[in-house]
Amino acid sequence: MFKAEKGHCNIPQRYQPNRALGKWVHKQRDEFKKHLLGESSSLTLDRIIALIQIGFQVSVDNLAEALWHDRFDELLVFFKIYGHCKVPQQYSENRALGKWVHRQRHEGKKLLLGKTSHMNTYRFEALSQINFF
User: Fold this and answer.
1) Which of 32, 86, 98, 107 would staple 91 via disulfide (CB 3.0–4.6 Å)?
2) Single pTM value for the model
3) Which of 68, 53, 52, 58 is nearest to 27 (CA)?
């Protein structure tokens, strides 16, 4: 159902509509890492193949990408509480989130102006869905 709506299987760990699903996705990735390292894992080769066939990204190799998703999850919590995405840059409850929001706005503007940006289409669309820009 998530994939049908969003077009991908990158479910945040703290996915608000279904936290159990987010936790399950996180667990699958942890089990995949164990499998790769030759450690005991509940994830069989058949399960790995099945996950890949549905478009599930079993590995989040890029730390920056994983961090982006963590901050986005934090933004979703902020949005749920306050009803907007105007996180102050010096947000005392989560300074990292405030700085991240400022950077996303900056990168989004560069993307819209056709300049080189770290913002990709996926990120821009995810942020746009919550009226970030």
Assistant:
1) 98
2) 0.56
3) 58
Six-digit token pair at 64? 């920056």
Distance of CA 30 to the CA centre of its chain: 16
Sign of the dihedral through C-alpha 90, 76, 123, 127:
negative
Distances (CA, A) of 50 to 7, 40, 56, 58, 133: 17, 19, 9, 11, 37
Q: In Å, how far from its chain's centre is CA 71?
A: 8
Give the alpha-carbon dihedral of 49, 31, 56, 44, to 10 degrees: 20
Q: Which residue ranges make up each domain of the chain? A: 2-53, 63-128
Residue 130: closest CA among 71, 76, 66: 76
**Tens-place pLDDT, residues 33-80:** 888 778 899 988 888 888 888 878 776 666 567 778 889 989 999 999
